[in-house]
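Contributing new complexes? Match this layout with magnesium ion.
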Amino acid sequence: MITLSHVSKIYHQGQPNELHALRDLNLTIDAEGITCLRGASGSGKTTLLSLIGCLSRPTSGRIALQGQIISSFSERFLTDIRRHTFGFIFQRFNLISGLSVIDNVMIPAYPIAPDHDLLYAKATELLHHFGLATRLHSRVEWLSGGESQRVAICRALINDPTIIIADEPTANLDSKLTAGFLSLMAELAKNGKSIILSSHDPGIYDAQEINHLIEMRDGRLLSQT
Amino acid sequence: MNHFFSRQRYLIDYTLASLLRRKGKHATLLLIYTLVIALLASVMLFTEALRQESQLLLSDAPEIVLQRQIAGRHALVPVDYLEKIGTIRGTHQIEGRLWGYHYDATIKANYTVMASEEHALTNSEIIIGATLARSRGVAVGDMLSLSAADGGTFVFTIKALLPSTSELVSSDLVLMTPHALRLTLGIPEGFYTDVIIAVRNPREMQKVAAKLIERLPDSRPILRDEILRTYEAVFAWRQGVVLLLLVTTVLAFIIFAWDRASGLSAEERREIGILKAVGWEIGDILQMKFWEGTIISLSAFLTGYLIAYLHVFYGNASLFAPVLKGWATLYPDFRLYPVIDALQLTTLFCFTVIPYAVATLVPTWRSAITDPEEVMR
Amino acid sequence: MLLHPAIMALLLLSLLVTAMLLPAALFALQILRHWNMQSGSARQLALERKTYLISTLLTWVFTAELLSLFLFIYSAEALSGQFVGAMCATGVLNINAWGWPTLWLKIVTFFAGSLWLIMNQLDNHGYDFPLIRQKYILLLLIVPLLLAGGYSQLSFFSALNPEVITSCCGSLFSADAQGVAAELSGIAPKNALLMLTVAALILCVTAYLVLKQGTRLTALAFSITALLFFAIALSAIVSAVALYIYQHPHHHCPFCLLKAGHHYSGYLLYLPLFVATALALPLPFIARCQAIPSLSATAHRWVKQLSRSSLALYLLFLVIVLLEIAASPLRLLSQ
Ligand SMILES: Nc1ncnc2c1ncn2[C@@H]1O[C@H](COP(=O)(O)OP(=O)(O)OP(=O)(O)O)[C@@H](O)[C@H]1O
Ligand SMILES: [Mg+2]
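Output block (do not edit by hand):
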């Protein structure tokens, strides 16, 4: 459960190009199921996701995660929370080129420093599960878009997060792969993960797998169902 | 604690992989870094070895050498000075020495000629240093002619070569009988070049010296410790001067390193952004970069030092021997005795690695604070 | 001024330290004025990110200072060949009035630096930077210390005059001379070792109390005993332990111990002693942090850990002392 109260995010505060990306936002996201953020380009979806995901801090306002107020945590502790709570899937898959698939999947766990054999086994298992068993040691730049997406999903899951955040995850996929992605997410949701994603693709926000829909405009909340 | 170490292991693993992925970028830096260290280390190793060498030589030199001075210049010591010195408490050996320099026009070099009674030489036999033998192209049993003080020429048989343990001085040495030496160098009977005095207790050296001047007002006692001190100072000073000259090199390298560290490619920036977005923290990135710097510095330091070591002790410091040695024209082809000491290593470290680390500090931090939000756009 | 490479390295270090210290001090002032953890303003975020830079910078500063402490003693040792009367570092430090102050400043800096680093490390364990103000006030106090050290060192080196005939350990550390060093040397070995034993016992008692209770008072008691033990241990080295190592009843020098001729046994003695003291001194402070909500668990753990490691190192020191005494043919206590 994530609660935002009076949250604003201002870029370039106090400068001529000051920009209010989020304005006095009040929002409660129930952790269950898949939540979708919908809104026009520039409406503040990415900004909101990065605030929820502890990637940045609000200029003002409070954010509480499972009852714990995190908006005034130092970056060090935000990262710590983020590592254990969130998994991220990005629009441009953001894999590190030059490294193998399995290395890419294991990277988020390095600072936590689990036992190497366990980590390796876990990464292998995830990759098997997502149908990448044969690509373990291929370099990521040789993968297709769909495969890259699945590697990114594995990476997001390596630290056993409870919440998965995906910012326009299907913008680089065709409609067939989009449907595939949604069913993967639905499966994860069934296994108890909460998923928050943003999209302006009707294939996503009108899909039946979505449990909650949040609409945004100009940094404000328009509706929540 | 365990967690700390295994985390560092992960970070080092990652760093190594990322260094290998960007070999080209780091190769130039590593090369220059290594060369700078090799240069500085060569200077240090070389002067340090010379210093040790000279100390070694002086360690069995006589405690006091007594010279006579006339008009402020070195003059021969009459034999009766030995009697005038007589017995001084604390000394246990007083002896006149015969030696001098001899200029050889054929190879345009100075020899040091010394009288020796130990080697049972006859008046027509000599013993010479190995380098001298090489430059004159002679061997044991060959003849060597030396021009004498009166214009004539003496022909000697070479009886043996001097062992080359400490070639720095013995290389240009010629040993002959006192009689032959007097004829060759033109030192008249009844005179010595100087007098050596052995002192039992080093603390009494100053007292003995004072007494000598009192008894022989025109004499000048030279204390071994004084020479040692001068040598120390001279060698340290020379090393200092050369290092000071090299400071510009180090500075140039530091600027280069700084520039390298600040000029982060878009790809590297993105990589750091991704790492941060998936759960790395500024501290993790800084530590990874610390390992990067450590790996580069360590490789450069070890390789550079090794190169310097080989250059100085096996390559005869061929690059700058002429500048630093400042010895006779006859350069001995000698092997310096290898010395490595902690002070030198620490000094070298302070001159290279620490400035490198400081120079890359700010650029590294700049890259580490890359906003993770950036990769979402 | 002598142009010795080690001297140049020391001056370079001091230059670098000063260059790093000034921005750090400016930053400390900024922190004290503008820090506000509740705000998410751009300035606050920038300040927070800069703390990483400044901690790294200061880690290097204190590492460089530690290195320069070693290098200073080492180079004093190495320079002893160039001065009439100097046989070891003591003689060189005696050449002018700046030698000993420089050494003491470096030692104090070592302790202050380790205090700062431990504080910083502790602070990193709290989610809201609970110690940020104290940390940077301490830094502002350390800055003059470091600058004084640098100045003193510069004065020492620039006034190194080879003409001066200095006096070395033989005369400074002798019972007949005057001053602190002489008085230390005058203490009978038996008394010195007795005092060391008593101090060690008290140390064990206070350590026990800290480990058991971990309160502010016990931590303070341990810290003070540790400081006393440090002083007593140093004087015991001069008045007794050195004699055993040199196997000579009247050679009291604290530096000749560091030479190869005495198997570098000085390092074996000084290293545990200094590190143990550096770990013991921050204890009262850490004990106080147990009251801060975001730090209490960590601080509680640290009090135990630090006092345990510190005690272990002190005991190691004592064991080494005993071994040195046992290994020496010299017998001082039987008379
Ligand atoms: N780092 C930044 N600096 C300045 N302005 C920013 C920054 N990040 C975002 N913005 C601005 O904030 C506003 C909201 O951006 P945001 O990325 O959240 O929108 P979005 O809903 O995700 O849009 P899109 O659908 O195009 O991804 C935009 O006007 C954007 O230009
Ligand atoms: Mg967006």
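Reviewers usually confirm one structural detail per submission. For this one: Chain C has two domains: 1-167, 169-335.
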